[in-house]
Amino acid sequence: MSAETATEVLAIKYAETAVAAREHFMLPLGSGGNPHAAPNADPHEGPHPISYFLWLIRHPQGLILVDTGFGEAAAARRRRTLLRHPVEALKAVGVAPEEIGTVVLTHLHYDHAGTLACFPNATFVVQARELTYAAGPAMRHQVCRKAFDVEDVTEVVRTLYAGRLYPVEGDRLLAPGVSLHLIGGHTNGLQVVRVETAAGRLVIASDATHFYESAAEKNPFPDHCSLPEYLNGLDRLFELTDDPNLVVPGHDERVLELFPTRPGDPNVVELHRGPLGPTPFAGVVLPPVREP
Question: Which domains can be identified in the chain, with CATH numbers?
Answer without folding.
Answer: 3-273 (3.60.15.10)
